[in-house]
């Protein structure tokens, strides 16, 4: 059995962090020991002492997961840019093999939920992308897709890239992090139907738009739980 899942998305701001935290809750309810991992984080929170914390880590903690920035986020940078640029500005060169090694150090009693940064082809360096890291780890992938106009193209291109790289896709999670899914003409349902039909990859959950989302509000997590349990 795999040591974990890799959670990636069709792009930035599609809800990967909420999905990762929600999956942590889902698995923890069944008694599994779960460890969310953010191998590379840009856009860090700068603490009063000058150290960094991860905004994604705040969401994991709110979901009830263990979060230790030093273990679970080995590469963190302040600029809110792509990882390769944030690393370059910090004088660091990211090596996907070394990143994967640090992730594997966490394998053991815990099941890992590894969240990527941005989408599949987000650069880690001039020579590598998030896809190289996914291939190096070899974990089954969960692809997060924002259910919106244009998501069919984004989803199918992402699925094709993952499949051509030999990665197993465990399923898709449809999200609506920024606005309700488009109901006109039955578009939201058709997006799901068409993506599943063409790709032969199942949508395993569909998370609705949550107005006034607040990761510190237990009622918001109840809606996430309901979507992932269905």
From TrEMBL:
GO biological process: biotin biosynthetic process
UniProt: ATP binding residues: 13-18, 56, 115-118, 208-210
SUPFAM superfamilies for the chain: P-loop containing nucleoside triphosphate hydrolases
Gene Ontology CC, one term: cytosol
Domain of life: Bacteria
Keyword Cell division set for record: no
Enzyme class: ligase
Subcellular location: Cytoplasm
Pathway assignment: Cofactor biosynthesis; biotin biosynthesis; biotin from 7,8-diaminononanoate: step 1/2
Binding residues annotated for Mg(2+), in chain numbering: 17, 56, 115
EC number: 6.3.3.3
Major localization class: cytoplasm
Active-site feature positions: 38
InterPro entries documented for this protein: DTB_synth_BioD (IPR004472), P-loop_NTPase (IPR027417)
Cofactor list: Mg(2+)
Catalysed transformations (reactions): (7R,8S)-7,8-diammoniononanoate + CO2 + ATP = (4R,5S)-dethiobiotin + ADP + phosphate + 3 H(+)
Binding site for substrate: 42
Summary of the function given for this chain in its UniProt record: Catalyzes a mechanistically unusual reaction, the ATP-dependent insertion of CO2 between the N7 and N8 nitrogen atoms of 7,8-diaminopelargonic acid (DAPA, also called 7,8-diammoniononanoate) to form a ureido ring.
Complex and partners: Homodimer.
HAMAP family: BioD (MF_00336)
Family statement drawn from the similarity comment of this UniProt entry: Belongs to the dethiobiotin synthetase family.
Protein name (database record): ATP-dependent dethiobiotin synthetase BioD
Biological source species: Maridesulfovibrio salexigens (strain ATCC 14822 / DSM 2638 / NCIMB 8403 / VKM B-1763)
């Amino acid at each position: 059995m795999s040591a974990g899942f890799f959670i990636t998305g069709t792009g930035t701001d599609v809800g990967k962090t909420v999905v990762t935290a929600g999956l942590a809750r889902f698995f923890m309810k069944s008694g599994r020991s779960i460890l969310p991992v953010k191998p590379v984080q840009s856009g860090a929170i700068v603490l009063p002492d000058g150290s960094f914390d991860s905004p994604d880590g705040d969401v994991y903690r709110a979901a009830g997961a263990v979060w230790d920035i030093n273990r679970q986020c080995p590469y963190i940078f302040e600029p809110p840019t792509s990882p390769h640029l944030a690393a370059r500005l910090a004088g660091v060169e990211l090596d996907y093999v070394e990143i994967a090694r640090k992730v594997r150090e966490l394998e053991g009693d815990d099941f890992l939920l590894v969240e990527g940064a941005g989408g599949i082809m987000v650069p880690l360096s001039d020579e590598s992308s998030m896809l190289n890291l996914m291939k190096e780890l070899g974990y089954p992938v969960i692809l997060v897709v924002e259910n919106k106009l244009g998501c069919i193209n984004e989803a199918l291109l992402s699925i094709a890239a993952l499949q051509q790289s030999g990665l197993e896709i465990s399923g898709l999670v449809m999200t609506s992090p920024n606005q309700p899914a488009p109901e006109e003409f039955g578009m939201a349902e058709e997006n799901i139907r068409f993506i599943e039909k063409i790709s032969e990859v199942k949508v395993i959950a569909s998370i609705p738009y949550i107005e006034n989302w607040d990761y510190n509000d237990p009622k918001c997590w109840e809606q996430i739980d309901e979507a992932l349990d269905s």
